[in-house]
Amino acid sequence: MLKKKFIILLATTFSGLFLNNFAGATVLNNSYKEVIDHVWQIVYRDFLDSSGKFQKSNWINLRKEVLSKTYSDSNEAYDAIRVMLSNLDDSYTRFLEPKEFNQMRIDTSGELTGVGIQIIKDKESDDLIIISPIEGTPAFDAGIKARDKILSIDDISTEGMNIEEAVKLIRGQRGTKVKLEIFRGSKSFFKILSRERIEIKSVSSKLNQSKNGLLIGYVRIKQFNANASKETKDAIKDLETRKVAGYVLDLRSNPGGLLESSIDISRHFINKGVIVSTVSKDGLKETKRGNGQALTKKPLVVLVNEGSASASEIVSGAIKDNKRGKLVGKKTFGKGLVQSMRTLVDGSGLTVTVAKYLTPNGTDINKSGIIPDIEVKMNINPILQREIGTRKDKQYRAGEKELINLINRKNQISEFKPNIPNLNAFLKINKQDKVFSLN
């Protein structure tokens, strides 16, 4: 069972509204104000401020202001909530109307509706930024990339538009189309995408063979939803029966998902040691470790890129800091904050930043990302989806090469047996790998 609500992305029910007796004793006259105050209470109690700009005194004064007004319908109340949250300077704390909130809960269970992108609002530039397209969705197939900016949706400018308004415009009836104006680099262009309802299989795997005949287990995780840990476990167990020599774990363009899923998947590869630490606004630290039940100890390489975010970075950071494997690709997105999903009194919802996470070495990667051990750019010319994880994939080729080095190094260590004369083996190790150390 998931125990710590402040470290998981999970729909929970908020209990104990401190109405009429909290921070100014403002009287609530209608249900719309109850929703507003419910949001206010959650932020006051649980919000972790990563910017350093949040002042509780200002937040208390804001409550008095918003609850002193009259709201004739839910739309007015919802607008007031969004304005209130805009004061937090946090792209990830946001309000969702009942339909949007229900869809988000469906999304985390493994089913998506729309075009397959996750977006944030950049507080500094006020741009709508794509975190990453999800593989197998219309956005991915159309060539949308991480950090693309959305300038307009169906010819409606996104200037000043919040995430909720953008989501409403992007989502729609299955089979209909939406036109996005994208800005990338120094130019803009249009993409017309079909809206689809897709049940995403979060994990795919296959058996690859290197040029020198080594069997390599390739596992690609597209999203850390509720099914990802079991699917990854099943993939590893299958590949173990096929006697693979090592693994390439592909987390490229994976925008993240459930924290608990990332911890479980890390435990599939890491037997012992710290996986991640989360720190709440009160400084409460919760550390997750390997549970001694890793599914494999074989050499490992992890592929990452600019679209590897959040839960992907937890797994990547755990692998890197524990020296369990090597990271290959490009620097990750840089989302080191944890959100909790809260159900509000009228069925709407709130995703609120409640903690930051640290890699095992204590590194806060928010906005800075994780730098891979070996930096490799993707192919200049786009490759087909079926070519991902093959030798036509430049980053995969680099990952496979590094994995072979790790496999050879491991084999060389096994040749060196301290209890028998082994000078030849020792010389062989040092000749092939000058940086190898027996310490």
Question: Overview of this structure, please?
Answer:
It is globular and about 75 Å long. The chain starts with 10 loop residues before the first strand and ends in a 7-residue tail after the last helix. With 439 residues, it is α+β, with helices and mostly antiparallel strands. The chain is built from 11 helices and 20 strands. The protein folds into 3 domains: 5-98, 2-Layer Sandwich (Transcription Regulator spoIIAA); 114-199, Pdz3 Domain, CATH 2.30.42; 203-338 and 353-406, 2-enoyl-CoA Hydratase, Chain A, domain 1 (Alpha-Beta Complex). Strands 1, 2, 14, 15, 18 and 19 form a 6-stranded mixed sheet that branches. Strands 4, 5, 6, 7, 8 and 9 form a 6-stranded antiparallel sheet that branches. The protein has a 6-stranded mixed sheet with strand order 11-12-13-16-17-20, sandwiched between helices. It is 30% helix and 24% strand. Helix 1 (31-46) runs antiparallel to helix 2 (56-67), helix 8 runs parallel beside helix 9 (311-321) and helix 10 (394-415) runs antiparallel to helix 11 (423-432).
The CATH homologous superfamily of the largest domain is termed 2-enoyl-CoA Hydratase, Chain A, domain 1
Main sheet characteristics: 6 strands, mixed
What's the tally of helices?
A: 11
Question: What structural class results from the helix and strand content?
Answer: alpha+beta
Number of strands: 20
Please give the domain count.
Answer: 3
**Parts with pLDDT < 50 across at least 5 consecutive residues:** 1-29, 425-439
pLDDT average, as an integer?
85
Strand content: 15-25%
Radius of gyration, whole Å? 24 Å
Based on CA inertia axes, which overall geometry fits?
globular
CATH architecture of the largest domain: Alpha-Beta Complex
**Percent range of helical residues:** 25-40%
User: What's the N-to-C terminus distance?
Assistant: 41 Å
- What is the CATH C level class of the largest domain, in words? Alpha Beta
CATH-assigned fold name of the largest domain: 2-enoyl-CoA Hydratase, Chain A, domain 1
